[in-house]
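User: I'm preparing a small set of examples for a lab meeting where we compare how different chains pack in three dimensions. I only have the primary sequence for this one, and I'd like the structure in token form so I can line it up with the others. Please keep the answer compact; I'll paste it straight into my notes.
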Amino acid sequence: MNYPVKAQPQLTLPATWYHASEIFERERRRVFARQWQFIGPVSHLANPGDYLAVEITGWRVFVIRDREGGLRGFHNLCRHRAGHFLDDGHGHCDVLRCKYHGWVYGADGRLRATPAFGEAPWFDKKDYPLLPIQVGEWRGLLFVNLNLEAPPLADCLGALPELTEPYQMESFACVRQVEFDIACNWKTYTDNFVEGYHIPSIHPWLNAKIDFSRFETYPRENVVVMKAPQREGSIYGGIWLWAYPNMTLSVYPDGMNTSRILPVSTDKARLVYHFYFRDIAPEGAAAREAAIEINCDIVREDFGICEIAQRNLTAGAYDRGPLSPKQEEGVRYFHDRLRASIGES
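Assistant: Understood. Below is the structure token output for the 345-residue chain.
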């Protein structure tokens, strides 16, 4: 008797990928050291000397606007003894002076002064410039890539330009940054973000404001798209996007939010959200704050289940699970991209 051949199952990543230190290090080296990553709004760097400093899986970097108006990016470390210049965040800096021993660099990365270092015939300041990174800008958003040999940002945006073309993103002003720490692996939270399967169970307010029966999740080049018809009282009404490896972008007719899903350790992640609006008039402040708080409440609702899932992934009883072809195509796409980046385990 001939039996039908069973199709190959679509399964999640192995549980060890969510807690093994060797996987975390491979992700650092093969994903976050090589991929373009969004770091914040370009509006933070409006004038010469304005900077944005961030950390990317242990690498501290910054972007600064130089005197000619260009954007330059560097590792946030001095070539002397690995001190740093700028604390994380955005601000203004007229002189790049190391906080450790006072070495001074220009915005072009050249070493300008080494106070009290002394004379040494073997020492030449030209040999110790700042270590550069790539910088890219797209529709008011700032991106960096630690890999100097990576293709330019424009070649790596995938479907983002097409998907966001209907929205006037450049007209939105960033009004608020909010950070969250969550006790789970960055992939545990990402898996949750790129599917809507959990919305009825975890997000009662959001579920009441959308037609979940018509919720769509599907991958495009470098992007996962999520959208659903909105009901009365919704604050959304646009498109929800995730871009590999760790950016989210939700765009609406009158505003948007972005986030960075940052790996901190095998079982900790940090989310950095920015909220943008078209109308920033003072009389609309209360409405904007209410919209931000609704968004933040929805983000917080995911924490409990993601943290419990992380503990179960680490405990050892669970290995892999099946992925829904209707609800979890975004998860499958993310896992496939990650496998391709760091190799099977």
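A couple of notes for your slides: Residues 168 and 324 are 34 Å apart (CA to CA). The mean pLDDT is 95.

User: Perfect, thanks.
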